[in-house]
């Protein structure tokens, strides 16, 4: 066991944990004021629900030896998970610490997913969905990529979760949103508080350094490369988005810059430890531009309501990043990989990435549909008229985020009085 590596991963685990509260604020500022607490609760409750799903069965299915498709029950209920190391997955750090690091990845994936159904899904069915999704969708894909499964054997690579975290959560969020009818009779209002969104974005941005750098499991040249790539990709993604926004709309918005930053971070995540600095800039620029067009044109054309653009940023960004990893991966940067298409490695590196992406999309979409259908047999998934009118904060949680006088709170943009937010 290496003490330095253990302390390093301990810090990175805390940084990745910070991403979920950060994303809760990012999303919270984007919704109507009467639904901000519910939106925050969807992310924060993920910490609770995912923890139990992960320790009971998820970690074992993801990282137990098993077969090419699914892990076994070696670590059921965290048995055999302690301060000991594990030669295959944590050779120089405690297995329990590795388990926690991976738990944070799973938690942020669920938090991302919640953005697609913000303000539109009932809370208890959402919690049930999260528990089942961790076990039936996330854990198998984690095993395919990082647990010795078929994607790993195929030769496809995913440094820190472009496929495992972002594609699964983005696609599942979109399918769930379409199923519950997100967007039907729904008047999309402007964000109620972009300062809260900014604070959340800053926390997510900082946490992402632990997300990518920690995936090396030690602070070596690969970790340093991924650190630099993560820093420059965030800026490149923001630049790509902002330039396109200025060209198409003659404006540069804060939410656009923050969305581009996230798009760049998502795009570089599968490639961070496998590509050089200039390649990282190209990947993030393309990621920012592609996400901009997906949200502002494809989404509008197809008329689906990906409520807070979880699919548009994480799903699309994850697909772009995963495929471009096969283009720009470099043996010079990381000796564990072969050269990609851009460096004379041929088309095979791109082809295996495409196969991994396509199968992950289909698997995530189909399983999400099945899980939601089963839950729908026992409970409605979408919010009812009372919840939509009065707000989920008041009806579901019995709380209000804001008070502004005796007679209630006025909507931040419209000035319309929300009579259900009266001071007690």
- The N- and C-terminal alpha carbons lie at a distance of 56 Å
Q: Tell the overall outline.
A: globular
Structural class: mainly alpha
The side-by-side strand order for the widest beta sheet comes to 1-2
CATH class: Mainly Alpha
Total discrete domains: 1
Domain Ammonium transporter AmtB-like: 8-402
InterPro entries: Ammonium/urea_transptr, Ammonium_transpt, NH4_transpt_AmtB-like_dom
Subcellular location: Cell membrane; Membrane
Main location: membrane
List the SSEs and their pairings.
Layout: H1 3-28, H2 36-63, H3 95-114, H4 123-146, H5 150-154, H6 162-179, H7 194-213, H8 221-249, H9 254-268, H10 277-302, H11 310-328, H12 348-376, H13 385-390, H14 392-397, E1 409-410, E2 417-418
Antiparallel strand pairs: 1-2
Helix pairs in contact: 1-2, 1-3, 1-7, 2-3, 2-4, 3-6, 4-6, 4-12, 6-11, 6-12, 7-8, 7-9, 8-9, 8-10, 9-10, 9-11, 10-11, 11-12
GO molecular function: ammonium channel activity
InterPro entries: Ammonium/urea_transptr (IPR029020), Ammonium_transpt (IPR001905), NH4_transpt_AmtB-like_dom (IPR024041)
Transmembrane segments: 6-31, 43-63, 93-114, 126-147, 159-182, 194-211, 223-244, 251-268, 274-295, 307-330, 350-372
């Amino acid at each position: 066991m290496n003490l330095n590596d253990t302390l390093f991963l301990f810090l990175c685990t805390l940084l990745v944990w910070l991403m979920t509260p950060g994303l809760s604020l990012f999303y919270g500022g984007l919704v109507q004021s009467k639904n901000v607490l519910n939106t925050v609760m969807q992310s924060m409750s993920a910490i609770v629900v995912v923890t139990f799903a992960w320790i009971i069965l998820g970690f074992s299915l993801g990282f137990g030896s098993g077969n090419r498709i699914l892990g076994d029950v070696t670590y059921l209920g965290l048995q055999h998970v302690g301060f000991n190391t594990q030669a295959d997955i944590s050779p120089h750090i405690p297995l329990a610490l590795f388990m926690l690091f991976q738990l944070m990845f799973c938690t942020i994936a669920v938090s991302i997913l919640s953005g697609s159904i913000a303000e539109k899904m009932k809370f208890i069915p959402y919690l049930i969905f999260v528990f089942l999704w961790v076990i039936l969708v996330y854990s198998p894909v984690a095993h395919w990529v990082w647990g010795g499964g078929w994607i790993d054997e195929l030769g496809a690579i995913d440094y820190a979760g472009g496929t495992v975290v972002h594609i699964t959560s983005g696609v599942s969020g979109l399918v769930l949103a379409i199923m519950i009818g997100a967007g039907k009779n729904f008047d999309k209002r402007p964000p109620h508080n972009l300062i809260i969104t900014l604070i959340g974005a800053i926390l997510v941005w900082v946490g992402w350094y632990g997300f990518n750098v920690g995936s090396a499991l030690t602070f070596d040249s690969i970790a340093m490369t991924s650190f630099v790539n993560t820093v420059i990709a965030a800026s490149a993604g923001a630049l790509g988005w902002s330039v396109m926004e200025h060209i198409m709309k003659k404006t540069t918005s804060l939410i656009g810059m923050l969305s581009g930053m996230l798009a760049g971070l998502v795009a570089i995540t599968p490639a961070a430890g496998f590509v050089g600095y200039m390649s990282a800039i190209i990947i993030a620029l393309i990621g920012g531009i592609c996400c901009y067009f997906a949200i502002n044109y494809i989404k509008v054309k197809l008329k689906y309501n990906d409520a807070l653009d979880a699919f548009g940023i994480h799903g699309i960004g994850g697909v772009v990043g995963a495929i471009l990893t096969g283009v720009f991966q470099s043996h010079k940067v990381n000796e564990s990989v072969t050269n990609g298409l851009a460096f004379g490695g041929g088309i095979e590196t791109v082809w295996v990435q495409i196969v991994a992406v396509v199968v992950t999309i289909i698997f995530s979409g189909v399983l999400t549909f099945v899980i939601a259908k089963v839950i729908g047999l026992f409970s409605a998934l979408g919010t009812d008229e009372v919840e939509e009118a009065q707000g989920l904060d008041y009806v579901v949680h019995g709380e209000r985020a804001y008070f502004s006088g005796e007679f209630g709170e006025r909507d931040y943009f419209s000035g319309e009085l929300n009579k259900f937010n009266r001071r007690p």
